[in-house]
Design goal:
This protein is mainly β and 201 residues long. Helix content is 2%, strand content 49%. It contains one helix and 15 strands, in the order E-E-E-E-E-E-E-E-H-E-E-E-E-E-E-E. The strands form four sheets. Strands 3, 4, 6, 7 and 8 form a five-stranded antiparallel β-sheet that branches. A four-stranded antiparallel β-sheet has the order 12-11-14-15, with no helix packed on it. The radius of gyration is 29 Å and the shape is rod-shaped.
């Protein structure tokens, strides 16, 4: 037999890329940074990534990431919130499967209840609240709710449910020589804290 050639053709069928590994590297009060590690055994070309993320009580959002990105930061996030995220790699053939979801949290906690001596200034017919005595836990204060009642009564009187942070707030029209209970709820993005105080005019 002469003039016979053997030619072997290798047919490579490519598909969408495998999901990358997502490794969390750092968090601040408003950002989450993570590394992307493509699947080592996967030879499929990658053209880019899409990260899907959502806060604990919010909707999914997405951002596109360039294909040669090793580390990526999601910015403008809520302070002190839990987040879920996953990443999809894609190429010209299509979208790959999503990576396993990663759960993390931005930094920041609920406000810290202040000591009565720093917070309250009592006079005969009123009490002044020094709002700056509250520590914000790393997440800026949004508003305060202020309620009070005479010590021997059951029902609270709402003074305001939207006191803005900063400066002082005065509760007026108190009876002199009377014991009162005061309840202040401080809200920031991480949640809220309730403080109760007892004072006499």
């Amino acid at each position: 037999k002469f003039g016979q050639d053997m030619v072997t053709h290798e047919l490579v069928v490519n598909g969408p890329p495998e999901p990358p590994m997502v490794i969390l590297t750092s968090q601040t009060t408003d950002s989450i940074t993570f590394k992307l590690r493509p699947e080592e055994t996967d030879t499929t070309p990658i053209h880019g990534f899409i990260v899907h993320y959502k806060p604990e009580f919010g909707d999914w959002e997405k951002e596109e990431i360039g294909f040669n990105t090793d580390e990526y930061t999601l910015n403008h996030l809520w302070c002190g919130q839990g987040y879920q995220l996953y990443v999809i790699a894609y190429n010209s053939i299509g979208m790959g499967k999503p990576s396993p979801a990663v759960t993390t949290k931005t930094k920041g906690v609920e406000p810290t209840v202040p000591d009565a001596r720093r917070f309250l200034e009592v006079s005969a017919g009123s009490v002044t609240l020094h709002l700056n005595a509250w520590q914000d836990g790393g997440c800026p204060m949004i508003y305060f709710v202020v309620e009070y009642k005479p010590k021997n009564q059951k029902d609270w009187t709402l003074v305001s449910n939207n006191v803005k942070p900063g400066g002082n707030f005065v509760v007026l029209d108190l009876n002199p020589a009377t014991w009162y209970n005061l309840k202040v709820t401080a809200h920031n993005n991480a949640g809220f804290s309730i403080a109760e105080y007892e004072f006499a005019t």
